[in-house]
Amino acid sequence: MVWTKGQSGNPAGKPAGTRNKSTRMVLAIMERGAKEITEAVVKLAKEGDLSAARLVIERLLPPAKDRPVFVALPDTDTAAGIAQAQAVILRAVAAGELLPAEAATLAGIVEGYRKALETQELEQRIAALGTK
User: Fold this and answer.
1) What is the dihedral of CA 37, 40, 45, 50, to 10 degrees?
2) How many whole angstroms separate alpha carbon 102 and alpha carbon 108?
3) Does residue 124 share a domain with residue 96?
4) Which structural domain, as residue segments, surrounds residue 112?
């Protein structure tokens, strides 16, 4: 059968997750030597090879994505309270109690709350103007 340009003999395409032949071959080789490779890397790590130690640790402990953050914030129902909350977050970063990324997330939450309060206040003002 002759296929025209752009027409596939398999319209459904390759099934998702299907690995090509070279990938399957490499995985098979690695699986056969996995125990020996693991033991060799752990032995090197125990002997002080920092690269091997880092590799072992990275595999045993995946990188942390998020963690609970406990920071006592002041009341944020006023502009002054929101400014104080942002100052508390800044001081926590400076003291090493929060990572910069955690502080940015927390500050973003406080800012989002500030915007919600602002929107609510504007809505109330507009409603008050409409009744006059």
Assistant:
1) -60
2) 10
3) yes
4) 79-130
**Cα separation of 14 and 103, whole Å?**
45
Residue 104 token pair = 């940015």
Could you tell me if residue 12 is inside a domain? no
Instruction: List Cα–Cα distances, 83 to 74, 106, 126, 129, in angstroms.
Output: 9, 13, 25, 29
pLDDT: is 44 or 34 the higher one?
A: 44
**Structure-block tokens of residue 23:** 């990938």
Average pLDDT over residues 112-129: 93
Tokens of 76: 């944020």
Rounded CA-CA distance 32/19 in Å is: 18
Task: Kindly indicate the confidence band of residue 28, based on its pLDDT and cuts at 50, 70 and 90.
Answer: confident
